[in-house]
Input
Amino acid sequence: MSTLNVQSSCGDENEQGTLTVQHALQNMLGAVAEKAGQEQIHLTDAIDRVLAKPIISPLNVPSHCNSAVDGYAIMQADLPSGESIKTLNIIGQVVAGHPFKGTLQQGECIQIMTGAQMPEQADTVIMQEHVEIEDNCIRLDARHSAGQNVRQAGEDIQTGQTVLQAGIKLTPPQVGLIASLGMAEISVKTPLTVAVFSTGDEVLSIGDSPREGCIYDSNRYSMIAALKKLGCNVLDMGIIADEPEKLRAAFTQAANSADVIFTSGGVSVGAADYTKQVLSELGSINFWKVAMKPGRPIAFGQIEDAIFFGLPGNPVAVMVTFYQFALPCLQKMMGLTQPLINPAVQAKCTHTIRKIAGRTEFQRGILSKGKNGEWQVGTTGQQGSGILRSMSDANAFIILEHERNSVQKDEWVTVQPFNGLF
Ligand code: AMP
Ligand code: MG
Output
């Protein structure tokens, strides 16, 4: 088993064995490395995939000089000057996809459509709205300039130019850009395989009949949904009962088949289950108290070659720790160079929020534009870590920093908008 380079102590702890959010994240990021392989896929399957090799253009775009408008292709030597008017004979027509075969002489012009290849001798296009037509001739005045309305070959992209860097998640315009280079196959990173469990004897799967004292599992479904959005292959490992043998077998199976394992619940101090004990036996797992709310207890480490995240049990704590810790780690493992988390913005808080210094709080907020056009934010109401509504109603986290005390109305706070993942 490979060992983890994870430190479990740090200088900025306020309480014995407690890590700040920044330190916990730093530890986790230090322990994960890119895990994704590479595969060739057809461009039609490329959306949201992570590019494994840079895209280097095999051709010029556009490949030939062409007209940017419907009009008349002429030689710049035929442009009139001063007050004069020039009359040019129309000797033919050229449409997109059908290059002109003849030769243009001075004193002549060719009717040309948008996107049609420029006749070899022509270098300027006069918009059709800017000419008078009479007896198969055009009459033009002196308001035109040489070279106008022509898209030059290689104007957008030149042969050999790097148009996209490896490590980006492909967007629709980027797929179009690759298509414009005529490339049918591209090299992308293979998706991570991620196993997801829930723990706890009180937890039921959807579809199970309700039982007294039990709750329906939400954590597994919210995590699976987020992981699918990220493009991971998800192994739904169900709920494992609080029995050492079952936990051991399930974790071992997950470690053999997945790059990453997520569980929720069973990692808090005094949890009535065997999860912690079994994990300690199977892998190198750290059990951290993180100075944050929600989300204090977190287990992180490795079982065999799989990275293990033991998230808290409370549904909002799961979402917060997934967003704040798992997303940056998954980004690194996926070989993605762009952050999965949006940059934070400052917004005016619409009400007071009570807070004590010494931990980072992630309140769930609704970010909107205020009357004066500035960003404003308010919480979604009740902020208990078991109240998933507080999360599903939100469009952003309000991040109340470690050292911060209560927030007064109209104070500026840090807000992290969800980026479509949540
Ligand atoms: P634990 O850390 O296992 O003691 O769980 C903390 C709280 O989260 C308890 O109230 C659990 O019932 C709840 N919880 C644990 N797992 C889940 C789950 N998969 N879905 C919803 N709630 C859960
Ligand atoms: Mg439990």
Q: What stands out?
A: The chain has a mean pLDDT of 94.
